[in-house]
Amino acid sequence: MRYQNVFRRVQISAAVGLLIVLAAGCGKRESVTVEREVKFGLLADVQYAGKTHAGTRYYRNSKEKLTRCVTDLNTKDIDFVIQLGDLIDGGPNAAAELDEMLAVYNRINAEKYHTMGNHDFAGIDRNAVLSKMALDKGYCDFTVDNWRFVILDTLDVALIGGWPEDSENYKQGKEMLNRLKDQNAVNAVSWNGGIGEKQKAWLADVLADARKKHQQVIAFGHCPLVPAGDVHNLWNAQQIAIMLEDSDCVAAYFAGHNHHGNYQLRNSVHYVTLRGMVETPDQNAYAVIKLKPDKIEITGFGRVQSKTLVLCKD
């Protein structure tokens, strides 16, 4: 098999401030040409709510942290910003709190994008979330220079995805979850979700088009895809990871959902899970990502570590 013996999981120690990740998990990948450095901001799991903290989650403090993050990002020369989902914690005041946090996020001067998380739908339905975020649907793609950016909807089929219980997306989510429970899968929990057939077909077309155009691809989703056995993983994580890895044009996949963060290099794809902003009373968590022809430079702020990811070559 093409990927035999190229798998290697890389653990990142919390004590390491800057790490250069070599291509121990590299396989053959498509050659691409990029014309300039592309730079974007990234944050995850703001999870604001007007309530007291629970454990390490300081919900109310997230508004001030997001405000500081936005102010700082506006001093950077960035092309766009993506938030990786769970902008709010959800609950009886979800609609008003989402408006409140979008008002802060929308102060970003650069282009702004959303990845929807499970908490975004707690107390508010999908159509309302889409409308407030000015989205047609939960997934999309766009291009900057010769980089293709793909935002996935990891609550596409889900019980907690804002779907009505009589919708096909909800029913398919229930079926997928029940199958995983029958297999005793660790990620068989209702607060995860999956990617349905329509979105998978769309993703396959986008990846094929990117390969044809010799573009580098960076993908984003709320739920992580790796490591195997993580309770936070997308329900059909292995299927989607194989699609990304087999494309030969995907450089990285960024996710949230797991507030502790994570990293793994697998079959030429760097999988990065960003630490959640809601954690801790006052320490922030966000990053600025620089994309270069041969590497991805992550400059972390607060709890997010800085690291350099070396891109795999032919």
CATH class: Alpha Beta
Strand proportion, as a percent range, falls in 15-25%
Helix/strand order, N-terminal first: EEHEHEHEEHHEHEEEEEE
Going across the major beta sheet, what is the strand order? 1-13-12-11-2-3-4
**Annotation, overall tally of beta strands:** 13
List segments where confidence is low: pLDDT < 50 over at least 5 consecutive residues: 1-24
Share of residues in helices: 10-25%
**CATH arch. level architecture:** 4-Layer Sandwich
The radius of gyration computed from the alpha-carbon positions, rounded to a whole number of angstroms, is 18 Å
> What gap, in angstroms, lies between the N and C termini?
17 Å
pLDDT averaged over residues: 91
Structural class: alpha/beta
CATH H level: which superfamily?
A: Metallo-dependent phosphatases
Tally of contiguous helical segments: 6
Task: Specify the overall morphology.
Answer: globular
Which topology does CATH recognise?
A: Purple Acid Phosphatase, chain A, domain 2
Characteristics:
alpha/beta; Purple Acid Phosphatase, chain A, domain 2; 7-stranded mixed beta sheet; globular; 6 helices; 6-stranded mixed beta sheet; 22% strand; 314 residues
Write the layout of secondary structure elements.
Elements (H helix, E strand, L loop, with lengths): L17 E4 L16 E6 L18 H12 L6 E4 L10 H12 L5 E4 L11 H7 L7 E5 L2 E5 L16 H15 L14 H16 L3 E6 L15 H10 L3 E6 L6 E5 L2 E5 L11 E7 L3 E8 L3 E5 L4
